[in-house]
Amino acid sequence: MSDLSRSTHTGRPRVVVVGAGFAGLAAVKALKAAPVEVVLLDQHNHHVFNPFLYQVATALLEPVEAANPVRALVRGLRNLTFRVATVSDVHLRSQQVGTDRGVVAYDYLILAAGSVSDYFHSADIAARSFGIKDLGEALELRNQVLSRFEQASWAADPVERSRLLSFAVVGGGPTGVEFAAALAVLVEGSLAKDFPSITREEVSIVLVEGSEAPLASFAKGLQRSAARALANKGVRVESKAMVADVDVEGLLLKDGRRIEAATVVWAAGVTANPLVESLGVELGSKRRVPVTATLQLAGHPEVFVVGDLAEIPGRSKQPLPMLAQVGLQSGGHAGRAIEAMLAGRRVARFRYHNLGTMAVVGRNDGIAQIGPLHLSGFVGWLAWLFLHIARIHGLSGRFLVLVSWISGFVFADRPVRLVVGPRKAIPHASQTAGRPGGADAIELPSPSVATVDEWGPAAALAWWTQDLPGRERT
Ligand SMILES: Cc1cc2nc3c(=O)[nH]c(=O)nc-3n(C[C@H](O)[C@H](O)[C@H](O)COP(=O)(O)OP(=O)(O)OC[C@H]3O[C@@H](n4cnc5c(N)ncnc54)[C@H](O)[C@@H]3O)c2cc1C
User: Fold this and answer.
1) Is the pLDDT of residue 270 over 90?
2) Same CATH fold, 123-268 and 14-118+271-342?
3) What pairs with residue 312 in β-bridges?
4) What is the mean pLDDT of residues 204-218?
5) Which distant-in-sequence residues (6+ apart) come within 8 Å of 75 by Cβ?
6) Could you identify the atom of ligand 1 that is nearest to the CA of residue 132?
């Protein structure tokens, strides 16, 4: 039984926050002076700055520049306990959450467990494509890209070389566009120098989008500017292309067409974390939890749902988009709302302030839509840079990223193109159980993660990031 399974003995109510992402961290910071005991739970020991994941996947940033240990970020919060735990369900009646470390009791609950990639219920698509949803996936993708170039350098047959160097990116939202553009920059820059025997013509990058054009949420002029930037970088865009299946040779489209690709990257959207299923409430769009105007769960004023997990009514009656700003603002609101409830004050409605949407389309090129202001090219990229630097949690993180970008801007060739993997077999927890300091000493991801031969670098990275990929790929 965990020491958190019963109510607090401190006389202060306990607020349990599930998820140390944008929303969860904003919530615990808002509660820092509140007369409560805060318990923050996350499945990982680190907070990930998702907007930078595509840069990790394209060897522009190191993982440490896109993630921070949670314990370092919450160091100054005296009323907070952080624990690594995977939350599996929520028991609304008994006011407990179930975790892999036992149950944790709460007086107030803030659910901020974010979202997962949406593979449209296809196990094949999930197994055969690469996601960019967390640090483990981004590193796995970086290894895949670099390994394909290493394999192609051995291939004498030009057809086989082109096959190995074919990449399809599914999803023309900001994540897909940013990844495709950054991959083109990597290919033209560092990889052209690293692999002088491979020509740009042998590499194909296709961006596959179901609607009329990529970046549909941006104004038409900005869409055109991004399309030009992609074309200049040699990224082919296939619009109105709905994916039916992914196989070992590439994509099958719903209209019967095929797109050959040895590497398929899946950036076709997200859906709320499956944790929401245990709430037993009717779910909304993208399986998000509908919340009241104060971000509470109807009938359970002690429960707040925030960030990507929540379907928050917007001004136009459309739910708010799944964005970092929504996470930050809604998480902060939930923290302040609990403080208000404890002080006997009325809980205010949540008001979202749209700070604009942005996307990067390659090196020093971006688009930004900030109210009526539409920026593109270098100015759009600068707007993106400053907004994102300001959002990174922790001063050291901001400094690290700024230094990396400046060095990337000046030298355009950062030496982060490592394919890393373990040298010896990783024992499963059950093999170490019973030994002193055995199973509890280190949490290993899965019995199936056995040797480098079986799983290669992906397993090493999964182990390192404590995030099991569980995929079968070629
Ligand atoms: C590749 C990528 C790029 C993006 N780029 C942008 C961008 O440029 N601009 C923008 O505004 N938005 C962007 N987004 C969206 C943005 O990152 C999300 O909207 C935001 O992270 C949501 O915040 P959140 O706190 O709800 O979830 P997250 O930040 O995802 O945090 C959820 C946390 O919950 C933890 N967790 C999950 N399940 C469990 C569990 N069962 N038990 C315990 N802990 C759990 C996770 O480990 C994570 O730490 C991007 C997203 C991705 C994936």
Assistant:
1) yes
2) yes
3) none
4) 94
5) none
6) 1
Task: Report, at the CATH architecture level, how domain 14-118+271-342 is classified.
Answer: 3-Layer(bba) Sandwich (3.50)
Half-sphere exposure at residue 405, Cβ-oriented, CA atoms within 13 angstroms: 20
Whether residue 447 is predicted with pLDDT greater than 60 in this model: the reply is no
Q: Are strands 204-208 and 366-370 parallel, antiparallel or unpaired?
A: unpaired
> What is the arithmetic mean of pLDDT over 215-232?
93
Beta bridge partner(s), residue 100: 102
Ligand 1 contacts CB of residue 176 (under 6 A): no
User: Ligand 1 pocket, 322 CB below 6 A?
Assistant: yes
Determine contact, residues 105/13, Cβ cutoff 8 Å. no
What pLDDT is attached to residue 200?
Answer: 94
pLDDT for the residue numbered 201: 94
Quick check: 214 and 220 in contact, CB under 8 A? no
Dist CA 208 CA 243 (whole Å): 8
Neighbour tally for 45: CB within 10 Å: 16
Per-residue pLDDT for 444 more than 70? no
Mean pLDDT for the stretch of residues 182-192: 93
Q: What is the mean pLDDT of the segment spanning 344-363?
A: 91
| Alpha carbons 50 and 314: distance in angstroms, whole number | 23
Q: Is 141 in the pocket of ligand 1 (CB under 6 A)?
A: no
Question: Who wins on pLDDT, 432 or 277?
Answer: 277
Write down the pLDDT at residue 456.
37
Q: CB atoms < 10 A from the CB of 441, how many?
A: 10
Contacts of 159 (CB under 8 A, 6+ apart): none
Q: Encoding tokens for residue 290? A: 């509908």
CA of 118 to the centre of ligand 1 (A): 13
Q: Is 43 in the pocket of ligand 1 (CB under 6 A)?
A: yes
CA of 36 from ligand 1 middle (Å) equals 26
Q: What's the average model confidence in pLDDT over 279-292?
A: 96
* Domain edges within the chain: 14-118+271-342, 123-268
pLDDT at 434: 42
Residue among 323, 355, 466 to mutate when testing ligand 1 (max atoms within 8 A of CB): 323
171-191 average pLDDT score: 95
- Is the beta carbon of 324 within 6 A of some atom in ligand 1? yes
Q: CB–CB of 198/158 below 8 Å?
A: no
Average pLDDT of every residue of the chain: 86
Ligand 1 atom nearest to 325, measured from its CA? 11
SS (H, E, C) 288-323: CEECCCCCEECCEEEEEECHHHEECECCCCCECCCC
Top CATH class of 123-268 equals alpha beta
Nearest atom in ligand 1 to 85's CA: 43
User: What residue type is 123 in one-letter code?
Assistant: A
| Active centre residues (catalytic) | 178
